[in-house]
Write a structure and sequence with these properties.
This protein has a domain of 60 residues. Helix content is 52%, strand content 0%. The longest helix has 19 residues. Helix 3 packs across helix 4. With 88 residues, it is mainly α. It has 4 helices and no strands.
Length: 88
């Protein structure tokens, strides 16, 4: 996602989508997952019938981590886009 698009919907590199929480027992070798990768992963999950297992091979992220990322990003998107979506 381009930088201008992130700014347009209020998502920044340091925003709520971009701060991965360190896992318990987190080691220095674990990679940090960027905002863009978190959003891409979530949108791919929502737009397809891919399971967490298939996404783990595609994104090289464990299914346990994916199962934490998807709900976090969905909650952040709902919060950020609440003013732009009307629910009847």
């Amino acid at each position: 996602m381009d930088g201008w698009r992130r700014r347009e919907i209020g998502i920044s590199e340091g925003g709520s989508l971009g701060r991965p929480r360190p896992a318990q027992g987190c080691s220095a070798e674990k990679k940090k997952i960027s905002v863009q990768e978190r959003l891409t992963l979530t949108l791919r999950f929502l737009a397809s019938v891919d399971s967490y297992v298939s996404l783990q091979y595609l994104f090289k992220i464990s299914k346990q981590t994916i199962s934490r990322i998807v709900p976090e990003v969905c909650e952040a998107l709902v919060e950020k886009l609440m003013d732009y979506v009307q629910v009847r």
